[in-house]
Amino acid sequence: MTDRSRFFRHHRLLPLILGGMLSTSALADSFQLHSPDLGDPATMQSRFVFNGFGCQGDNVSPSLRWDKAPDATQSFAVTVYDPDAPTGSGWWHWVAFNLPADTRSLASGASSQGALPEGTVQSRTDYGKPGYGGPCPPEGHGPHRYQFRVYALNVESLPLDENASAAMVGFMLNHHALATAELEVTYER
Q1: Quick one: DSSP state of residue 124?
Q2: Which of 18-27, 44-53, 67-76, 88-97 has the lowest average pLDDT?
Q3: Is the dihedral of CA 51, 56, 60, 64 positive or negative?
Q4: Residues 93-106, mean pLDDT to the nearest whole number
Q5: How buried is residue 21: exposed, middle or buried, by Cβ count under 10 Å (0-12/13-18/19+)?
Q6: Is 125 exposed, middle or buried (0-12, 13-18, 19+ CB in 10 A)?
Q7: Phi, then psi, of 175 in degrees rounded to 5
């Protein structure tokens, strides 16, 4: 195949590739995550900070609300991740999945107060146990970003339990995600 024929062959695919990217982008722009607990500027209040490792927060999961999920959504998952943790692989603060498709919000404290929808699974975080574990960056390390994400999934449930690692859940989420919505907040001490 000549260089010229390769060029034209690849450029015929360009509209298909761009069309796919645009439709995915438009879908992602419509799915939105909000939290009345995480204000503007988007910084973490002590109520949502971890209680341990030198941090003295209440370790309460913030309320979350999402809307405009894709019509094909069969379940949701919620994660909180700190990409700035000095671990080489970030820090998983919350991993919850198998939320029913009709779920559109989680109340403040839902992780620890038994207020998650029936069937929801919370699996291990980097604190070594299931459930929400709030921010607790090293003192003087500067601001850390906390990425709250809701995944709209194309399956009713993931075949995982509370012992699943965040990495395994993340793999499954990315494999089954129709769309994601994100809210980022910062915290430092």
Answers
A1: B
A2: 18-27
A3: negative
A4: 98
A5: exposed
A6: buried
A7: -70, -30
